[in-house]
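Hi everyone,

Forwarding the result from last night's run.
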Amino acid sequence: MRRNNKKRLIPLALALALSLISAALAVPAITVNVQELGQGSKVITSTVTNADVTWTLDSTNPDYVTSATVTITTDPGAGTIYLKLYSGTTLVAVAQATLNGSGTYTLTFASPVALSSFDTVYVVYQGG
């Protein structure tokens, strides 16, 4: 190669390298931070701290639950209350009711649930 051609290639190579570096720096980066509820700098608290659950057994077979009455003593405000039945980590059944203050709410399951099919009960309040 001639010396003249080599001198022309050096600025061309530098321009190509500079453009590649510029393009690489222009790609935006997205950072996602995930934290569990109640973790981090701001703790989420609920106004519902206590709920009593009374079961209603099926009238023809007392081995099944048809509904539950949930009593809330503090007024959480508007929202929805869920009663979730789990077997280990598997959701077995769920019932819900719309809240309008403290009081007693009846939550009926879509179909009767066998007492032996669940081992954990969650009462969940979702504010409105």
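The helical segments are 3-25.

Cheers,
N.
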